[in-house]
Specification:
Blueprint lengths: L2 E2 L4 E5 L5 H8 L5 E3 L10 H4 L3 H6 L3 E2 L4 E5 L9 H8 L4 E6 L2 H18 L7 H5 E2 L2 E2 L4 H5 L2 H9 L7 E5 H6 L1 H11 L11 E4 L4 E6 L2 E3 L14 H22 L7
Parallel strand pairs: 2-5, 2-6, 3-5, 6-9
Antiparallel strand pairs: 1-4, 7-8, 10-11, 11-12
Length: about 260
């Protein structure tokens, strides 16, 4: 029979890194079931106090041979989440999808921009938020979220590096299969995701999924056009993240193709 299980794997972030695409793509696998919504159990106190049974009640039903996966991108940048997840299951496997930190900032801004437009709130130009008095506004939350080394340090206090698999978000979008095969291996699952599970949608400009005779693309809120950003501002962001990126590469023993 089936029952609701506490996740054996969690996609912990990063916001705007491609977490939804990763979850939807992993959902192709017959041995994976995924939670429908972002649960925010470990990062929101008002949910955490509801306890582990409340958390389990939000999970899908699964068979004994299936892994339950939950994704809440807020976990990666949450001060409490690493310790709380460790308290629940110290041997859990974590997935972290990252992309170029400057691109991530622009994507973060874009999501907030559209949300504000849709709810008739005033919006600001990207440059006006990122630059304050001629200098980079490093207090801007979107910039803070892209300091991968700062956040990773907190996770590595509680988990070993071999418990955290980093998915390259820039690669996942361009060529999903190899990235997903690495995840299958990390989760000790048989290789079941194949190239015919994906087809490139010209209109959307990214891959859609074909599985169980159904085709599905990500929500139209995904892959929105980013604003064209002033080159000087881009350079300032690149140079600000450069040192953080280098530190992160050393931390995880892996380099990424970021600016």
């Amino acid at each position: 029979g089936t029952s609701r299980q506490i996740p054996q794997t969690i996609i912990i972030g990063v916001r705007k890194g491609g977490t939804r695409a990763l979850l939807e793509m992993l959902d192709i696998h017959p041995n994976i079931v995924v939670a429908a919504t972002e649960v925010h159990f470990f990062d929101w106190d008002e949910n955490y106090v509801k306890g582990i049974d409340w958390y389990r009640s939000l999970m899908p039903f699964s068979y004994g041979n299936q892994i339950t996966i939950e994704k809440t991108p807020g976990y990666f940048t949450s001060p409490q989440a690493p310790e709380r997840i460790h308290d629940m299951n110290s041997s859990i496997k974590l997935l972290l999808i990252l992309r170029d930190p400057t691109e991530r900032v622009i994507s973060d801004y874009t999501q907030v921009y559209y949300n504000r437009v849709e709810s008739h709130k005033p919006v600001q130009l990207f440059e006006d938020i990122v630059i304050k008095n001629g200098a980079l506004n490093t207090k801007y939350k979107a910039i803070q979220r892209s300091l991968y080394d700062v956040h990773m340090e907190k996770w590595l206090k509680h988990f070993s590096l071999d418990q955290i698999h980093i998915v390259d978000g820039n690669t996942l979008i361009k060529d999903p299969l190899p990235e997903l095969q690495k995840v299958e291996r990390f989760l000790n699952l048989p290789s079941r995701i194949i190239s015919s599970n994906f087809y490139f949608n010209q209109t959307k400009g990214f891959y859609c999924i074909r599985s169980d005779g159904r085709e599905r693309c990500l929500h139209e809120s995904k892959g929105r056009p980013h604003p064209l950003v002033n080159n000087t501002v881009l350079e300032q962001l690149y140079s600000y993240f450069r040192e953080h990126n280098a530190k992160f590469y050393r931390m995880v023993n892996h380099s990424f193709d970021w600016h």
